[in-house]
Each structure stands twice: as structure tokens, then as C-alpha cells.
Amino acid sequence: MHDGAAFQALLQEIGGTIDRASAVGGEDEALAKQLQSAVERLASVTRTLLAERDAELRLANANAYLEAAGHVVIAWLWLDQLLVAAERDSSDFAAGKRQAARFFFAHELPRVMPLLELLEARDRTVLDMHDDWF
User: Fold this and answer.
1) Hey, where are the domains in the chain?
2) Per residue, what are the HEC states of the chain?
3) Distance CA 15, CA 6 (A)
4) Is the dihedral of CA 57, 10, 4, 117 positive or negative?
5) CB 3.0–4.6 Å: which of 32, 96, 123, 125 could bond 21 by disulfide?
6) pTM
7) For the chain, how far is it from start to end, CA to CA, in angstroms?
8) Long-range contacts at 16-21 (CB < 8 A, ≥ 24 apart)
9) Residue 92: is its pLDDT beyond 90?
10) How buried is residue 55: exposed, middle or buried, by Cβ count under 10 Å (0-12/13-18/19+)?
């Protein structure tokens, strides 16, 4: 909608958090780099899908797109929480936030790349299924 204005605004917000985390250095910078890679890939795949003329093919794997985009957004929120917690709090609660973020970046965010590869390939498996095969 509006040539992707909302998506671009989201990417700018995420980019601001990535910049802040990169400036901190250390683990925060490493997580920021990981998120940046996922954001760049999501943006690239989104452009590929938007260029697809066949609307059915473009939407055939919408569930995979929503899962990938959702994981990118959740990783952004975790990174932002780390930055806020570090500024305000050195408690066990803040340590728990950091550990939960580590888990998400180690176990969940890597799941985004295979989904984006599937989407970029514009897989037709769902579309090529026939009702009479059931």
C-alpha cells in the first residue's frame, strides 16, 4: 500500500535500533549484525514478491512470509529491549531479558533464512496440488 510506505517506515525503525546496538559494540553489535542480515534479506524477498505478476503465485506461501517477517520483528523487539534494559537496569530481570534474547537470536531468527529462500524461489507446490489427488 502506498508503494510500501508502511514497510519502509518499519525498516527505518528497525534500522535505528540496529544503529544504536551497533554503537554499543560487543554482543549487542553482533546481534545487530545478525538482525541486519535478516532485514536485508526480507526486504529483498519482499521486492521480488511484489514484482511477481501472478497474484496467486505471489501469495501462495503467504504463511511463510508472515512467519519470516514476524520473526524479524520479534528479533527487533528483543534487541530494543536489551538496549533499554542496559540503560536502566542491571538486575536479574535485565539478565533474564538478555538471555531470552540470546535464545531467540540463536534458535528462532535463523529459521527465517530458509523461509525466505522458499519465498524467493516462488515455490508452486501449493498451487500445483489438485483436489482429485486427495
Assistant:
1) 2-123
2) CHHHHHHHHHHHHHHHHHHHHHHHCHHHHHHHHHHHHHHHHHHHHHHHHHHCCCHHHHHCCHHHHHHHHHHHHHHHHHHHHHHHHHHHCCCHHHHHHHHHHHHHHHHHHHHHHHHHHHHHCCCCCCCCCCHHHC
3) 14
4) negative
5) 32
6) 0.91
7) 37
8) 17/76, 17/79, 17/80, 17/83, 18/79, 20/83, 21/79, 21/82, 21/83
9) no
10) exposed
- Name the percent of the chain lying above pLDDT 90: 82
Q: What is the pLDDT of residues 38-49, one digit of tens each?
A: 999 999 999 999
The answer to whether the CB of 119 falls within 8 A of the CB of 58 is no
- From the number of C-beta atoms within 10 Å of its C-beta (0-12, 13-18, 19+), residue 117 rates as middle
CB–CB of 78/100 below 8 Å?
A: yes
Look at residue 2 in the predicted model and tell me its pLDDT: 83
